[in-house]
Amino acid sequence: MEETLMSNDTSKGPEDLTVMSREPLIAGTPLGSMKDLETPAANFFVRNHFPIPRLESSGWSLKVTGEVERPFSLGLDALKEMPRREVLVLMECAGNSRGSVQPPIEGLLWDNGAVGTARWTGVPLRSVLEYAGLLDSAVEVLLEGADRGNQQGTTGEMGYSMSLPMDKALHPDTLLAYDMNGESLSPEHGYPLRAVVPGWFGMTAVKWLTGIQVLSQPFWGFHQNDYYVYVGEGYDNGSPKERVTYLQVKSLVTWPGRGRILTTGRHEIRGMAWSGQGPVTKVEVSTDNGRTWQPANLEDSESPYAWRQWTSCWDVSQPGYFLIRARATDQMGKVQPVQAQWNYRGFANNSIHAVPVEVRASG
Asked: Phi, psi at residue 116, to the nearest 5°?
């Protein structure tokens, strides 16, 4: 299906999104719009696999089945009566930044716009599972969306589903979210209900949820086991492959933009940094081809799952052409690499971000 997604439609969509495909809808956020801790819903990237299902809350219900003592269904109003939780969580598409991967990869050529942070409100998945009563045979929780379509390379129509291991499904911050930044989800972002899985790439945050199935054995599905996996050069196409899960430590330069013309003097470089296995603890900036690295100032964040804003002052006295590079380190000691390990679809690309700028003499 990826070939059909790679249209040349890079027009502006709602607000400041750059539309890469209109059906299914795929749209990214320009780096210059990444200015705040919270990304407005209208500026939040969209990555759909199939057409958006049009669901009405009056006829919608969430069915909980499988390895549970009490299978049940509940509507949106009943779900909203359960104890709610609000979590500030970054979401990033697994293919974000893969347009810069070399050698070239297969797939939608995202620049860096498939990432954003929002305040999600909903019910912990754990609460719903506890109400249903998990059996001892439970090993995974399958999240089933209402979106359906055809996938290139497969036969017949399929739906979009992803499973979570029990420890992730039972984490108190894994949500069934119905609000985004204090407002009901829009259809583009999964109305009436979507999953939010902190620390993992966004393909597990299934939208338009209609089913939760507790499984007694590991799930197998196209998107989870054939598509969102790491495929190295020379891999056999029938062999098991590692699933894409955790976000990688990463930093992006959001200002100045690529090709910006600056004058000699002092400039404030700005950006965002995040990681899926703990908060970012350090960001460094280099303007001399990586020979030296200067520590940036990191803003505090109220959530370990959100990005952290950073700034760095650059005093430049000589005109010329420069690359501004930024690298992040997280609390696990993982450092953003110069070049991420290549894989066939370019997933989880966290190579150091480099922005070319020109500096001219002032006055």
From this structure: -170, 165
Looking at the domain covering 250-360, what would its CATH class be? mainly beta
* Other Cβ atoms within 10 Å of 172 Cβ, number: 11
Q: How far is CA 14 from CA 18, 27, 54, 182, 199, in A?
A: 8, 9, 18, 19, 27
Query: How does pLDDT run along the chain (363 residues), one tens digit per residue?
Result: 232 233 334 444 455 799 999 999 999 999 999 999 999 999 999 999 999 999 999 999 999 999 999 999 999 999 999 999 999 999 999 999 999 999 999 998 999 999 999 999 999 999 999 999 999 999 999 999 999 999 887 888 999 999 999 999 999 999 999 999 999 999 999 999 999 999 999 999 999 999 999 999 999 999 999 999 999 999 988 888 999 999 999 999 999 999 999 999 999 999 999 999 999 999 999 999 999 999 999 999 999 999 999 999 999 999 999 999 999 999 999 999 999 999 999 999 999 999 999 999 987
- Domain limits of the chain? 2-227, 250-360
CATH number of the structural domain 2-227? 3.90.420.10
User: H helices of 201-280, where?
Assistant: none
Which amino acid, residue 223? Answer: H
Ordered alpha helix ranges (H), the chain: 2-5, 76-80, 125-132, 166-169
Distance (Å, whole) CA 249 – CA 350: 7
**Inter-residue contact 247 to 280 (CB < 8 Å):** no
Q: What separation, in Å, do the N-terminal and C-terminal C-alpha atoms of the chain show?
A: 53
CA 76, CA 339: separation in Å to the nearest integer? 45
Report which of 274, 313, 290 is spatially closest to residue 88, judged by C-alpha positions. Answer: 274
202: three-class secondary structure by DSSP:
helix
